[in-house]
């Protein structure tokens, strides 16, 4: 049986890093003496987040192609060759049993090299509309774990397994944490709580919206937990002086914040959407328009099409936000309907299923 070795790669945003860490944690609980190595892009957030989760990481000199002609693009071939070369060195030295990619720039050269060296690879695609890296890698990958149906037009059908996205396991039992959550965030149990989530880096347009609507929201007997992102904390922390407003750059206890929330306004990154399905609260999605291939709008639409959430485009916010928010706040029946419908879409066992697929690849070797 021996000691298993796994290389995982995913990064650039929390949406790629978190699933990779969740998969590693699940494999570690099954194989306590397995060895793990992460590979990321050397100047991205995974270089901090992965060691915080207790895993070693190596960085590649890689970045994505910009949409216009820039020096970055001129350097791309050089960075790609350097990253392929370093990936080869890492794989040869570490000798993994399986290489797992969850998206982001670094997973491209790493999995490409693993495929060339004949090492089994698994990719986990979080979005309803795959990125270019995973589309290219899918031709050679041994298994492709997806979170949405109908991806046959992007990936070979026989390799796809519908698993859902890995989510924090502590979100699955939030129903009985409400009292603890209200105490933790010092909330008023008689007010409705609005939770605003702009993603791991924060979202300028969402912050501007909440700033503009703040008085109106508070006037409706609502309290707010507003995660503005660390890039914007300086600018918005002044609102902490308002009664019933908490502005934070980052939330450690996501389980408790979800337990406290009555209505959630969120970006529509793939891992946020998957978490919100499990959490099962009424959600207004405001997709980021500045992500590759408009992923977020497509992720949100997949939920909205099944009547599980409300979707507002950034371009609609000024005209429609206050009407939509007030209507939802005053309609408990609609809140209940959205909660029930979004919960139907949850795939809570994703991490375990993905680990099962990894184990199958080891057994096939």
Characterise the protein shown here.
The chain is globular and about 60 Å long. The two termini are 12 Å apart. The chain is of the alpha/beta class. The chain has a 7-stranded parallel sheet, sandwiched between helices. A 6-stranded parallel sheet has the order 10-9-8-11-12-13, sandwiched between helices. It has 14 helices and 13 strands. Strand 4, helix 4 (107-116) and strand 5 form a beta-alpha-beta unit. It folds into 2 domains: 5-167 and 348-364, Rossmann fold, CATH 3.40.50.2000; 170-344, Rossmann fold (3-Layer(aba) Sandwich), CATH 3.40.50.2000. The model has no long low-confidence stretch (mean pLDDT 91).
**How much of the polypeptide forms β-strand, as a percent range?**
15-25%
The tally of beta strands, per DSSP, is 13
Instruction: Please give the order of strands in the largest beta sheet.
Output: 3-2-1-4-5-6-7
Query: Number of helical runs?
Result: 14
| CATH class term of the largest domain | Alpha Beta
Let me know the largest β-sheet: 7 strands, parallel
What would the average pLDDT be, to the nearest integer? 91
Note poorly predicted spans.
none
User: What kind of oligomer do you see?
Assistant: single chain
Broad structural category: alpha/beta
Shape: globular
CATH superfamily of the largest domain: Glycogen Phosphorylase B
Radius of gyration: 21 Å
Q: How many structural domains does the protein architecture include?
A: 2
- Report how far apart the termini are: 12 Å
